[in-house]
Amino acid sequence: MRSREEEQRLLVQTLCGEYRVRGRSGEAEAAAEVLAQPAVCRDSSAAREQLRLSVEQLSGDRNTVCYDEAGYPSVMVRVPMVRCRDVLASSEDAAPHPAFRSGKKTVREILVSKYLNCVVDGRACSLPLAQPFAANSFDDAAGLCYRKGHGWMAMPFPLRMAIALSCRREGFLPGGNNDSGADYFHPEERGTPVGATGLVLTGSGPRTWSHDRSENGLWDLNGNLSEWDGGFRLMDGELQFVELPQLLDASSVKSDSSAWHAVDAQGRPVPPGSPDALHYDVKGGKIRLVVRKECEGIGNCSFGEISAGEAAEAPEFLRLCGLCPDRNWSVVENEGWRWVSTQGEFMPICGGAYRAVDHAGVFFTGMTKARSSRYSMAGVRCVYVAPEAIQEVVS
Fold it and tell me: What is the phi-psi region of residue 218: left when phi exceeds 0, alpha when psi lies from -120 to 50, beta otherwise?
């Protein structure tokens, strides 16, 4: 068993490696030393503040540390509000992306787990070089996030797609552990294995496994474990959403919640079951966006191959939410596949797991698992929305 001092040295080395501070100034090295202190004294308010300040210093304020109501820390990435035209080449709309707006309210910043979550005392936590936790079902995964307290939730699917579209707009899609410890398309890229499980420790891969190729980005959005997302589902093929800030309430994502709404061909919210609500159906094994389903079943294709079916063009809202490709979309090898089932309720599982190989990617979404499905290859990534980040739009 390692001594307290040995544990401390190991943690400092881990943090130095994670933020790539070796060879930098003594100030950065000192910040890493301070950053390690709260690991052995998490109940000290001074230590908590030092941990937060040290992470912010090392990351240039792009990362921070949030504490849940039980006092457990999570390393988070600041994701500021983006506008529609920032992520979608075809858009000229200066309005906030749907992930950051609901009615007359906007969210100026969302804090997203830097890492695929581990679990501490029944709560999802974002910590470096940890073993990612496989949640048994969507309800279990969502509960691990809501249990952290007010403001916490599982990653909303539209937010994940805003991040994925931002990556593509920047000309880079991250790799990850999608081939039992390595990246399928770049087998020389490997993470630190978790025994013989096929998993790797969180954040242990190269920078190309970060969403922006930096040590301050979001890690493992491609591969390792898939991730249960909130805020979106398929109900008998119908595309349904729950928006922020309703998602702050754990009851909003229950199967019988009144917060769910569908959308029509103009991207406007309509009640579930409306005659003009948009659906996925499956024709020739491929996925189509339609108003009236013609073909039931399970279908799959690369994200860029989803077609608009009977519609002349998919509404911008769905293109922004990553449910169909933008105009003039060119398929790339590691963008990820889609799987859907059109009969029943299915929650999104995103990213692709450690054996998804060429199907994994930031646009990968499987919608063939019910909320109660016991699925051993999916975890969760929590997010936090501070009350002061939600603002009323002044018209």
Answer: beta
Give domain limits for the chain: 1-58, 63-395
Instruction: Determine how many CB atoms are found less than 10 A away from the CB of residue 5.
Output: 8
Closest to 224 in 3D by CA, of 89, 117, 369: 117
Local structure of 365: helix, strand or coil: strand
Note the pLDDT of residue 311. 60
Q: Give 74-118 pLDDT, tens digit per residue.
A: 999 999 999 999 999 999 999 999 999 988 899 999 999 999 999
Decide if 55 contacts 64 (C-beta within 8 A).
yes
CATH number of 63-395: 3.90.1580
First to last CA, the chain: 62
308-330 tens-digit pLDDT: 876 657 899 999 999 999 988 99
Cβ proximity of 358 and 309 under 8 Å? no
Encode pLDDT of 151-210 as tens digits: 999 999 999 999 999 999 999 999 999 999 999 999 999 999 999 999 999 999 999 999
In the DSSP assignment, the letter for residue 380 is -
Residue partners of 65: CB distance under 8 A and separation at least 6: 48, 51, 52, 55, 73, 74, 75, 76
3-state helix/strand/coil string of 219-231? ECCCECCEEECEC
- The pTM score is 0.93
Beta-strand runs (E) in 134-174: 152-154
What are the φ/ψ torsions at residue 318 (nearest 5 degrees)? Answer: -75, -30
- Give one DSSP letter per residue of 28-58, joined into a string: HHHHHHHHHGGGG-TT-HHHHHHHHHHHHHH
